[in-house]
Specification:
With about 325 residues, this protein is of the alpha/beta class. About 40% of the residues lie in helices and about 25% in strands. The chain is built from eleven helices and 13 strands.
């Protein structure tokens, strides 16, 4: 039963319905035993650097898997990918080398300065000189691809060649949607979606094959599109916060449609909006003063075989995302 039908049938308010839906999901699908079972099979995970976010995602980013990170502009998608690119280079074990990373950029230049600042902050926090920005940059292979044909050629031929020769633990495609939403100019709408669906299925099958064959995680960044008439919500702590977040959650949806959603193993969605901090109170009859407003952010585990749907509020710092 879809969540919207569950909410309508039960007659519960949105916040209570979401919590009931989450509890029922945990009873029907034994997520915790599945995570314990996975750990006994020596499966590898890439940490986000925050224990609470790792728990939200089931233990971090699973290796191997294809994971989608989706969110609107400036929500922190690239920031999360850079955070993972640093974490992926940590030692896998006493006898194993540092993992390498392949970072594919399709929307401008690689944010090297931002990565360097995050790496130095992480190295200082861990007291590990081997994770300094200089060392981290040496283990990242960067490709900047300007059009759709170049992207497909690189992902179809150059990427597997690189994976076969390097100890790559993480591949980031930032973003998968940039060229697929607008690059088929001159085609009829029907032909556009037909060609795009075919290419997405081919690319998705190859990415899954390479993730398992070369034992790496592949993180694909996706964009969002506006959706009208959708009324879904997630529980958010704080007076009046749930109704405000409901508007943000209900007006955005991942791009590339159901075809791409069937390709990825898991979907992580980033949300942001202007609002009051959870511990700040204000008279609801008056407009909130601007000095009480700030940008609030959430990370949501939309679907995953390793963890139930859930979300948590996060903050963004030099180290990356950290749960509140």
């Amino acid at each position: 039963m879809p969540y919207t039908e569950f909410e309508r049938t039960t007659g519960l308010d949105p916040q209570t319905a979401q919590r009931a839906w989450s509890v029922l999901g945990q009873l029907v699908y034994a997520w915790e035993p599945n995570c314990i079972l996975a750990s006994t099979h020596n499966e590898q995970w890439i940490t986000t650097g925050c224990d609470q976010i790792d728990v939200l995602l089931g233990n971090g980013i699973r290796v191997p898997s294809v994971v989608e990170v989706v969110g609107e502009s400036a929500s922190g998608k690239t920031q999360l990918c850079l955070q993972l690119a640093i974490s992926a280079q940590l030692l896998r074990g006493p006898q194993e080398p540092y993992g390498h990373v392949v970072y594919v950029c399709t929307e401008g230049a690689f944010p090297a300065q931002r990565l360097a600042a995050m790496a130095d902050a992480r190295a200082s926090q861990m007291n590990n000189p081997a994770m300094s920005s200089t060392q981290v940059m040496r283990r990242i292979q960067v490709a900047e691809l300007d059009d759709m044909e170049t992207m497909f050629h690189a992902l179809s031929y150059k990427l597997p060649a690189l994976l076969s020769t390097q100890q790559v633990r993480l591949v980031v495609i930032d973003s998968i949607a940039a060229h697929l939403r607008f690059d088929m100019e001159g085609t009829e709408p029907h032909d556009f979606y037909k060609q795009r669906s075919s290419r997405l299925m081919q690319l998705g099958a190859r990415l899954k094959q390479w993730a398992h064959e070369y034992k790496c995680a592949i993180v694909c960044v996706n964009q969002v599109k506006d959706v009208f008439g959708v009324q879904t919500s997630l529980p958010v702590d704080g007076d009046g916060a749930e109704s405000e977040f409901k508007m943000v959650r209900g007006s955005k949806a991942p791009a590339l449609g159901a075809v791409w959603a069937s390709v990825v193993n898991a979907r992580v969605m980033l949300h942001q909006r202007r609002g009051m901090a959870p511990n700040v109170t204000h008279d609801a009859e008056h407009e909130v003063p601007s000095h009480l407003l700030r940008t609030r952010r959430w990370i949501e585990n939309v679907f995953s075989p390793w963890a139930p749907p859930a979300q948590c509020e996060v903050t963004l710092s030099d180290h990356g995302f950290t749960a509140l």
